[in-house]
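Sequence design from tokenized structure. All designs in this work follow the same two-part layout: the structure record, then the generated sequence. An example of the structure record is given first.
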């Protein structure tokens, strides 16, 4: 329970800072969508991890606030643009930016968010600035590569599970890993430890995305915040889909391939049929096993790090809370 309270304190500290830093500017049609997407909430997982890591390595959480803000701004920039590419109507249970305003506004306000993210690093010393921006630029490019893989996979029938895991590593987990390493950099942690905490974040991020894939199909629409079955409607080749193709009967494999080749008027029938194949093939159990495996890899990376035991326990409890989530 204490860990939940500490994580809540980090979240509160970050959200307070975020609100202070995102005042409405002119022109309003540029800055209102930015304030809107940043204000939609979400788990704030990445900034919390940046603050946690800075303190775990003996630094101050407040010194990592700007790095945490950069990560959160970049994350939201990518969401605004992803939602346009996916034509998604909902984000965190609310109307997406391009639906609330229009596509052009979504593109431009997303671009501005990316620039604002880079500006967050300007208060750091030259040496820290260089380390942070090099890591940030590398990560930002990997996120774009991951998004392109994701788009490419929609029209490919030969996607492999290793390819899929690379895609989600780039699209999701590298930003989690970078947030943690930034906290370590701000705290001036030894390079070996900063690299190891990156591996913790990388494996945690993969587990988190696999959990997201699972919730997209089997989550509660009232708590999930996105359209349940959205990945199926978009013909996304998720871990569930790929494992189903590997393990299902020949008849179900053919049925799945057919379902992923159509976009019917009533998408609920398609979603239900696909979910039945996911369950019957054993893909649901395989996905849950993979989530546990990557979470364990994250815990294994913690063993290598020179950190107080209470910090390691806090990171473990944070990971477990993510894996047990319903949103």
């Amino acid at each position: 329970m204490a860990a939940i309270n500490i994580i809540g304190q980090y979240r509160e500290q970050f959200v307070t800072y975020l609100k202070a830093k995102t005042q409405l500017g002119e022109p309003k049609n540029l800055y209102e969508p930015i304030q809107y997407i940043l204000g939609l909430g979400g788990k704030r997982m990445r900034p919390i991890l940046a603050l946690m890591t800075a303190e775990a390595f003996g630094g101050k959480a407040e010194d990592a606030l700007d790095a945490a803000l950069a990560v959160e701004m970049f994350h939201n920039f990518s969401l605004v643009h992803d939602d346009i590419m996916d034509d998604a109507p909902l984000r965190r249970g609310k109307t997406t930016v391009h639906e609330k305003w229009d596509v052009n506004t979504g593109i431009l306000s997303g671009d501005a968010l990316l620039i604002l993210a880079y500006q967050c690093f300007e208060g750091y010393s030259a040496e820290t600035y260089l380390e942070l921006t090099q890591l940030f630029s590398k990560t930002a490019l990997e996120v774009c590569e991951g998004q392109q893989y994701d788009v490419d996979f929609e029209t490919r029938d030969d996607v492999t599970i290793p390819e899929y895991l690379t895609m989600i590593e780039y699209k999701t987990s590298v930003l989690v890993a970078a947030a943690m390493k930034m906290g370590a950099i701000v705290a001036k942690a030894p390079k070996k430890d900063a690299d190891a905490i990156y591996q913790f974040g990388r494996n945690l991020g993969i587990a988190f995305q696999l959990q997201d894939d699972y919730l997209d199909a089997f989550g509660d629409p009232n708590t999930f915040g996105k359209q349940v079955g959205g990945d199926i409607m978009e013909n996304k080749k998720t871990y569930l889909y790929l494992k189903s193709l590997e393990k299902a009967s020949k008849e179900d494999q053919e049925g799945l391939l057919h379902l992923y080749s159509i976009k019917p008027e009533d998408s609920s029938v398609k979603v239900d049929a696909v979910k039945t194949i996911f369950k019957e093939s054993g893909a649901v159990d395989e996905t849950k096993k993979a989530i546990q495996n990557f979470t364990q890899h994250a815990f294994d990376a913690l063993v290598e790090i020179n950190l107080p035991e209470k910090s390691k326990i806090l990171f473990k409890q944070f990971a477990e809370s993510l894996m047990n989530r319903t949103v």
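The chain is about 75% helix and 0% strand. We note this feature because it recurs in several other targets discussed in the main text.
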